[in-house]
Amino acid sequence: MPTVRLKDILLYVGVATAISWGGGDANFPDPLVQSPNSGWHSEGFGSRKPNIVFIITDDQDIEMSSLDYMPFVKEHLLDKGGYPKFVSQGFNENWLPVWLQQAGYNTYYTGKLFNFHTVRNYNSPHVKGFTGSDFLLDPFTYNYLSPAFQRDHNPPVIYPGNHTMDITADKAYALLDDALASGNPFFIGVAPVAPHSNVEVDTANPDRPNPRFSAPIPLNRHSHLFPTARVPRTPHFNPEKPSGVSWIAQRPRLNKKLVDHNDHHYRQRLRALQGVDELVDGLFKRLRASGQLDNTYVFYTSDNGFHIGQHRLNPGKECGFEEDIRVPLIVRGPGVAVRDVSKAITTHIDLAPTIFKIAGIPPREDFDGLAIPLRKAAAGSSSSKRHEHVNVEYWGFALEESKLSSEVFLNNTYKSLRIIGPNYNLYYSVWCNNEHQLYDLTTDPYQLRNLYPGYRDYSKTHKILEVPLVTVIGRLDSLLLVLKSCKGSVCVKPWAKLHPDGDVDSLLDSLKPRFDAFYDRQQSVQFDRCEMGYILDAEGPQEALSYTRGIHWSHWV
Ligand SMILES: *[C@@H]1O[C@H](CO)[C@@H](O)[C@H](O)[C@H]1NC(C)=O
Ligand SMILES: *[C@@H]1O[C@H](CO)[C@@H](O)[C@H](O)[C@H]1NC(C)=O
């Protein structure tokens, strides 16, 4: 194994609410082969299965180089979510670390695991599936200078005056040392809070925590860095004309005071990330010293992106723009091509399937995602065509995370689709007030021109793939109708739901004129009202029609 730097192997990915992307061909081979005799196995690592180190920062965008955040207010406006929801759905018995333990892995985790995983509910029940754990807990999760951690089944410990990154690093190293000493293959998840905004709450009064947001707080030794860094002044940075729909279209231009403060927030994020960078180095030093580095896959990613100033928005992350939904995904490990930037379209729902593949575990039927190809084409290996879409959904409200402005915007509920093919690169969304967005990122990479009919930039003559906009929109809407309620393999191959004959596998295929009448018959994605969560009866039509040959769709009622 040649010496490879982490940054040499870049794979862009989206988040659960996110995209990855490319714009080129999505045709990448699988990293690990399926053996005809013994089923799934991992290749070329000797007898011991490879280890997996999974580092996930919090809200780190890729569009602005590195960004974060997350609201505590949610805990008190949404009654359900995060850890309690996870437990009530039965997932504590049936999720990734449990499956990995069943496959012979030792499993470890430190840092933030869930929203609403708190000093009050951490033991009712305890999180299952970890050999060793040390969780950050609410309401101290985002308090950079007074974090609370909770080890295994011990009570929580608050560390007033200690920096979250110092404590997280110590805990990550201790768990990694345990993992390395165990002699078993291991999975370790490390989830530092940086570069999330700093959030302080009144902990004495749990019912009225009064959360206060401010820029992230770097370690002292990093607080002087990058004094001139500022948010990139791209065309969509605080633009002259408003953009987006719904509450976003109403945002006034940011004044100088806000712009200056947002630049400060941006610098503090970059500084706070230095603590993460050092943590990554510390993990690698231990892996290398143990002799296990060459038998370990290391993933580096973030839970979602972040925006600062784009589209006139103050710091935040609940929108569907590229800043919010694109995140870094870097993978280093045995057989991963060096200096390869993958154009595969992926999201975080693909991570569990990817980890399964690495661990030589057969994929579960109920996986909504698909293993991410980690290797370039090797001679003789068959290549499989990946899908070209990412489903993006949000329910509830958007929140500004600035000390100077922390407004809440209701009705921030929408369904979106990001789709990237050989000759198209589109974002389509339907909001709960039934406003729509369509951006053609080939001609409008900053998402400033909404091409949906009825909006300012719609033009009857604008074509995508040589086809009128309304035709393309019909196809996108039907695809979104399938994706917004898909489960399992339908999420991976949504076109097969619309075209069971298997002759349509992409937006391009679907645009054939012989399908026009069929798509005219589909119901549209729409909402009956805006809800704060996944309330099915507010979400309009659920089932898409399937194309059947021989039906005269233009006469069909
Ligand atoms: C936490 O802070 C105390 C007091 O400053 C210090 O002695 C201790 O070393 C710190 N712990 C860590 C892990 O940084
Ligand atoms: C939110 O949407 C509802 C319709 O579902 C509407 O009645 C209400 O005025 C909207 N609120 C805001 C703040 O836009």
Automatic annotation (TrEMBL):
Belongs to the sulfatase family. One of its GO terms (biological process) is phenol-containing compound metabolic process. Residues 1-26 form the signal peptide. It comes from Drechslerella stenobrocha 248. The keyword Signal applies. It comes from the Eukaryota. The lineage of its organism: Eukaryota, Fungi, Dikarya, Ascomycota, Pezizomycotina. This is Sulfatase N-terminal domain-containing protein. It holds the Pfam family Sulfatase. One of its GO terms (molecular function) is arylsulfatase activity. InterPro entries: Alkaline_phosphatase_core_sf, Arylsulfatase, Sulfatase_N. Keywords: Signal. Coiled coil: none annotated. Residues 78-361 form the Sulfatase N-terminal domain.
